[in-house]
UniProtKB/TrEMBL annotation:
The gene is LOC106842254. Putative odorant or sperm cell receptor. This is Olfactory receptor. It comes from the Eukaryota. One of its GO terms (cellular component) is plasma membrane. The lineage of its organism: Eukaryota, Metazoa, Chordata, Craniata, Vertebrata. It is found in: Cell membrane.
Amino acid sequence: MGTDNQTCVEEFILLGLSSDWDTQVSLFGLFLMTYLVTVLGNFLIVLLIRLDSRLHTPMYFFLTNLSLVDVSYATSIVPQMLVHFLAGYKVIPYVSCAAQLFLSLGLGGIEFVLLAVMAYDRYVAVCDPLRYSVIMHGGLCTRLAITSWVSGSINSLMQTTITFQLPMCKNKFIDHISCELLAVVRLACVDTSSNEVAIMVSSIVLLMAPFCLVLLSYIKIISTILKIQSTEGRKKAFQTCASHLTVVVLCYGMAIFTYIQPRSSPSVVQEKLISLFYAILMPMLNPMIYSIRNKEVKGAWQKLLGKLSGLTSKLAT
């Protein structure tokens, strides 16, 4: 492609979900409410884990990290989207676009690795319960959490760097809700085969490798559960994994569908819906899934609400 088609891009325009004003206002209200629920739900989960000593375990240490990742991921995309719903000119500066891509891609990678770490934690809890506290000691948990954050950040830095080194065409319209990786790559004026290979490699390292570890962990977990003689024992063992398994299926399923084969990736509309799923639905659902399906969390909620109710009664009298 000739240099006449290239330009020094200083800003991009996000086309978003709709150009109809009434639709945008309705979506603004819906997504604002969803975002507030997401922030509140994850904040309450972190606060609950902090306040209840019974939840000071490796599983809930990793859940705290997951909640922080979810809130950060939603915040990297949703506020910008809300502003654009009420703006006639949906512009995002070049630097802001790069920052948004770096944050969303990095936090997504962190979540995939973190879910694999949580699967390992569940594997040890079910398959080697007597040595659980010895294996999953504080030092190991901290190192695993740091590994999740560092690996996701390094991958995001590499992907963002090579993406924004591409010469961009005069067309600066991004047909997406945010500066998503594939949407930005499509604006390039040159062959992007090397970028697609890089996307494939990073998907294997940060998506398929953790997914395989999760799969292996759950094969061993299920095998162990089936060997338990009592029905009550099998039920209790399954309950320790149910919440995490639900999140794993939702999280990895969409990502594999989107990124493993960039050349045959979903349509633009499907990409937007998938991004909405990760930016809005998953961060809101995670605290609900862990609260509804987890007896320890429900017990902690009841204990906290009981204390608050007692305190309110004392203040009223």
